[in-house]
C-alpha cells in the first residue's frame, strides 16, 4: 500500500509538472520541445499535434492546423501540396473515433493507402495517432512515430487513461475525469490500455 501511495504521489507530481510545462508554452517551438521531452524517453523519433478538421480545408489553411510537429519537412511539403489531409486515414480515424490508431492496423485503400506507403519513405512507418480533446472541446490528434518500433518491443514507459474512455454512443457532453496512469498499475486493467 505504501508503494502504491508513493507511486500515486510521483505520478501526480509528474502529471502536474507535465501540465505546467504545456501551460507555459507560448510558441509552436515551445510546444514541440515540451512534447519531445515527454515522448523521446519512450523511443519516439517524431511527433505531430494538430487540430482535426471537421470538413474540407482550403490548401493554404492546412499548415495552420498543425500546432506542433517534428515531421520531416519534405514529407510536410508533399503532404500539404497533395492535400492529403482530406484522405489521411489517421485524420479520418481521429475525426470519428476516440481510441488510438496504430498505423499498421489502419484500414486504408486508394489514396489513404498511398499516404501510408509514402510516409514510410520519410521514416514514418511505425506509429500511432491518439485523438484527444482540448479543454475548450476542440478535437486534436496527437501522432507519434518511432523508427523500427514493432508491437513486440516494449516501450520504456507506457501510459493509459483510467477509467477507460466510454464508447462513442455513451459519451455525451458529460466527460468523466480521467487520470493518466502507467500501464500495469493496480487500477489500469488490460482493457484500459494497450501495447
Descriptive notes:
The chain is of the alpha+beta class and 195 residues long. 31% of the residues lie in helices and 17% in strands. It has five helices and seven strands, in the order H-H-E-E-H-H-E-H-E-E-E-E. The chain has helices at residues 2-23, 28-39, 73-81, 89-96, 111-120, and strands spanning 46-51, 66-69, 101-102, 127-133, 139-145, 159-162, 179-182. Strands 2-1-5-4-3 form a five-stranded antiparallel β-sheet. A hairpin with a 5-residue loop joins strand 4 (127-133) and strand 5. It is globular and about 50 Å long. The two termini are 26 Å apart. The model is unreliable at 151-195 (pLDDT under 50).
Secondary-structure topology with pairs:
Elements: H1 2-23, H2 28-39, E1 46-51, E2 66-69, H3 73-81, H4 89-96, E3 101-102, H5 111-120, E4 127-133, E5 139-145, E6 159-162, E7 179-182
Antiparallel strand pairs: 1-2, 1-5, 3-4, 4-5, 6-7
Beta-strand percent range: 15-25%
Alpha plus pi helix count: 5
One letter per element, helices H and strands E, the order comes to: HHEEHHEHEEEE
Quaternary state of this entry equals single chain
Structural class comes to alpha+beta
Strand order of the largest sheet: 2-1-5-4-3
Question: What does the average pLDDT come to?
Answer: 75
- Roughly what percent helix? 25-40%
Strand tally, please?
A: 7
